[in-house]
Amino acid sequence: MSENFLTVEDLHAGYGAARVLHGVSLTVGQGEICAILGPNGAGKTTTLRALSGGVRARGTIRLDGTDLAGRSPDAVARHGVAHVPEGRGTFMPLTVEENLRLGAYLRRDKAAAESDLERVYGHFPVLAERRGQAAGSLSGGEQQMLAIGRALMLRPRLLLLDEPSLGLAPLVTRELFGIVQAVNEEERTTVIVVEQNAHLALGIAHQAHVLESGRIVLSGPAEQIRADEQVVKSYLGYRV
Questions:
Q1: I want to staple 103 with a disulfide (CB 3.0 to 4.6 A). Which of 150, 163, 227, 237 is the partner?
Q2: Which segments constitute the ABC transporter domain (predicted)?
């Protein structure tokens, strides 16, 4: 794995006069899953928005040697970054397949995109069964699968997931995380996941960073963080 596929240095971001991130720095290797953890209000969502161009940021964001800092969301997406925001952002009146095809709107390799549509259906068989249904008729778990599937239609090099388990039943959440892990292993897609369920996120991640008040207070291999009882009790709020 490359240690510097994504390099973030001294990242500052916020909303208007409110500063949220205060000098965040991290690296993610190619083909890794990175978990960003921390309490509500720590800056996790803002970090993903800064990486995808959704919020103004100051600092360095370098993806495979290309500086993405200050670029628009559309320009960032063209460099292979797909962002699945909290709340999914599904187009409810459109069908499942129409939603998925929208994920490939930046692509010019239409034949390959058609092939990828079947690849996504392979990851999410329930979507294949419901391809003609309106997205608004799907369950919460199915809508989250659709949101991730739409992001995969970009064939991203970097996939950003914001709270994928939000509002989902534990069984559905475990299934969803298993699919994310399979995508990572089979397609070598680099993934950054922001997640309140720290135990679950650490179970699939290679590395993790803990944010508190807009600053990284802890970084390391996910297994090491997960195994340290004092760390998880102090920062993550559960017992090992």
A1: 150
A2: 6-238
